Amino acid sequence: MSRCAFGAAHAPIVPFIITLSSDIRQATLNVQDALTSLGYRLEPTVPAVWHTVPRDSWPAAAELAPYQSYPYPVTAVELVLTMKDDSAAVIGFVRALCLSGPRAPDSIVRIAQTYEAHSIVVALSRHP
């Protein structure tokens, strides 16, 4: 990834957790499927850990249309699959890597992070 055109973001990460009713093997497949269905490209890593290639463009979602005139702040997602009682749990973080530009409202970075976290939780909830 090239340098950030408008500087590095210093926003807090957006964490999330979701418990899945599937076993660890099925949950691994569900996480992989959810991320690829959302258009993420994945960096190689160890089993049960996912790091996305930084995303540098707005997802195609109607609810994001008001913000798409601003440069996307560049985000990356990290997920870890673990066991919680008898179920698998996914712990995730969305990091903003870059600022969105001098004309962008301060909330743009948080909007991008929150949208990505919500999209992943929704996609994973479709795979119980």
Descriptive tags:
128 residues; alpha+beta; Alpha-D-Glucose-1,6-Bisphosphate, Chain A, domain 4; five-stranded antiparallel beta sheet; 2 helices; elongated
Question: What can you tell me about this protein's structure?
Answer:
The chain is of the alpha+beta class and 128 residues long. It has a single domain (14-125), classed as Alpha-D-Glucose-1,6-Bisphosphate, Chain A, domain 4, CATH 3.30.530.50. The protein is 26% helix and 26% strand. The protein is built from 2 helices and 5 strands. The chain has a 5-stranded antiparallel sheet. Strand 2 and strand 3 form a beta hairpin. The relative contact order is 0.28. The model has no long low-confidence stretch (mean pLDDT 91).
Q: Can you lay out the helices and strands and say which pair or pack?
A:
Layout: E1 14-20, H1 24-37, E2 42-43, E3 49-52, E4 75-84, E5 87-96, H2 107-125
Antiparallel strand pairs: 1-5, 2-3, 3-4, 4-5
Strand order of the largest sheet: 1-5-4-3-2
Count of distinct strands: 5
Residue stretches low in confidence (pLDDT < 50, at least 5 long) are none
The radius of gyration over CA amounts to 15 Å
Q: Number of DSSP helices?
A: 2
End-to-end gap: 34 Å
State the helical fraction: 25-40%
Broad shape: elongated
CATH third-level topology:
Alpha-D-Glucose-1,6-Bisphosphate, Chain A, domain 4
Provide the CATH architecture: 2-Layer Sandwich
Largest beta sheet, briefly?
5 strands, antiparallel
Mean pLDDT: 91
Count of discrete domains: 1
User: What is the CATH domain class?
Assistant: Alpha Beta
Strand content: 25-35%
Helix-and-strand structural type:
alpha+beta
Order of helices and strands: EHEEEEH
